[in-house]
Amino acid sequence: AGSLSVGELADKLNKESSEIIKKLMNLGVMATINETLEAETIELIATDYGVAVEQEEVVDELDIDNYVEQDDPAKLQERPPVVTIMGHVDHGKTTLLDSIRHTKVTSGEAGGITQHIGAYQVEENNKLITFLDTPGHAAFTTMRARGAEVTDITILVVAADDGVMPQTREAINHAKAAEVPIIVAVNKMDKEGANPDRVMQELMEFQLVPESYGGDTIFVNLSAINGEGIDELLEMILLVAEVEDFKANPDKRARGSVVEAELDKGRGPVATLLVQNGTLHVGEPIVVGNAFGRIRAMVDDLGRQVKSAGPSKPVEIIGLNDVPQAGDPFVVFEEEKKARQIADARKSRAKDAERAQTSKINLDDLFSQI
Ligand code: GTP
Ligand code: MG
């Protein structure tokens, strides 16, 4: 079944519309004869009459993943891990991100002004690590809710003087639901009252068991303030990355996700994109969420203009005709015309959905007032 109105469904089932409407009411669905029903509702009613419903696979031609180039397994190469930091309020997430960035980014580099683009890369033992520095939970959950699975590894920050707290638990649940490996960073080790053993004990309840207790969760004791343990944390990230063997094909058109986006007064829509596969180039036609554009310029996390960006690289781009949302997917198209057409169709579909939603709410309001 695709979509059917109440009347059409009644015809198909050889029943009176009024009977179907009554059945719908029993299910808590208020519908008129011309109302279009959702596939699930159709199935419910039909099954009730002993009629089997065949669901046809609907190919959504506006799904931009249809336009992603196939991966050639022979061309896959190692890519940097993408890391998100999560943990309870005040346990030191921001301080840790800053500390990693400042100890690892040499300010003497060309252009060297570190720029906030919502993500950055650091180098450890000649290997890159990408950190998302948008506020942990928000980034992780909103992006996941929009279907963007960008995180490879989660750092769970737990303050050694405070232990496991509500948002620590929440973070663990998110990471587990996403099946993302967790590294525990026991922070604030410089503080009096720091008790890393207690943190370990508390986390065992969540099956986060350190190697010293026979488990396989990596724990790193550190201080985001004085820098102790940061190098070890980065090494552990690389170790997990090696085991997980993250790969991508740099030799194809790029696909990835929006990390953050905004409207800049002078530059227009500005979006930080994380390339998850392929390589992104200046000048390419791109669909980002429901927006379209040709990439006019790209800037990396150090404020340098770049011409291209490979897998796991975050870049800020300009040239879009609209502001996308965090978690939106992006795909580079071969043809500008096609890209524009898909983006425009996606935009009008989103508008229709929004309008339908609004009128539904108004109708509900009306009913609730009766
Ligand atoms: P929210 O963003 O509010 O959830 O907090 P956060 O997890 O980002 O914590 P933040 O980095 O803002 O740190 C909270 C407080 O703890 C600040 O006053 C930091 O200076 C302090 N802090 C962070 N890390 C350390 C540490 O390793 N040692 C000590 N002594 N203080 C720390
Ligand atoms: Mg913070």
TrEMBL record:
- Name the keywords, alphabetized: Cytoplasm, GTP-binding, Initiation factor, Nucleotide-binding, Protein biosynthesis
Q: Which organism is it from?
A: Marinococcus luteus
Per its UniProt entry, which superkingdom is the organism in?
A: Bacteria
- Where do transmembrane segments lie in this chain? none
Record bears the keyword DNA-binding? no
Q: Entire protein: which part is shown?
A: 45 to 414 of 621
Domain Tr-type G, first and last residues per copy = 78-251
Of which family is this protein a member?
A: Belongs to the TRAFAC class translation factor GTPase superfamily. Classic translation factor GTPase family. IF-2 subfamily.
Give the location in the cell: Cytoplasm
Task: Give me the residues that bind GTP, please.
Answer: 87-94, 133-137, 187-190
Does Protein biosynthesis count among this protein's keywords?
yes
Task: Tell me a Gene Ontology molecular-function term this record carries.
Answer: translation initiation factor activity
Start and end residues of each stretch annotated as G-domain: 81-229
Q: Protein name, please?
A: Translation initiation factor IF-2
Q: Which GO terms describe its cellular component?
A: cytosol
Chief site of localization = cytoplasm
